[in-house]
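INFO batch 0412 | record 1 of 1 | parsing
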Amino acid sequence: MNTLINHIIEQLLEIQNGKIWIGSSYESKLRSIDDNLVFVRPTKDLHSIAEIISHLTLWRNEAILKIKTGAGSKTDDCEENWLTNEKLKEKGWARIKSEYDHTLTELIALLKEKDDSFLKEEYYDTDFKGDYEYRFLLHGMLHHDIYHLGQLGLIIKHLK
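INFO prediction complete | emitting tokens
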């Protein structure tokens, strides 16, 4: 039975492009802003939209790696965690957004292969330096996505 896995998949999709109780989804927010503003930091202490999307992509890729191999490779202080706008501009917004979208598709495809018992299996978390159940990882990904969705809302308000 996959009730819990299916619920996690449903939440990931709703946060990305659904109608969610807390407000706008990622797709809705990203459609509301001109592409020429995605590299702008509204204040020196706020990240740009591109920085946040790149950051989310890194951690989604890390979750995919953990699911595939049972261990991660990144820590919170790794350079790729918060790439500079200069590096991100070289990559380009279309590629940043495409990579972000691809990671969701890949994560969901991996989860569809699992059943609920997978959530109790353990992986080694490089960042937290210990063994954790996959439930911890996937719930953390949802929390992380929602946290940064709120940040995007504030950044977009500042940019408009």
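INFO post-check: The beta strands are 122-125, 130-133.
INFO record closed
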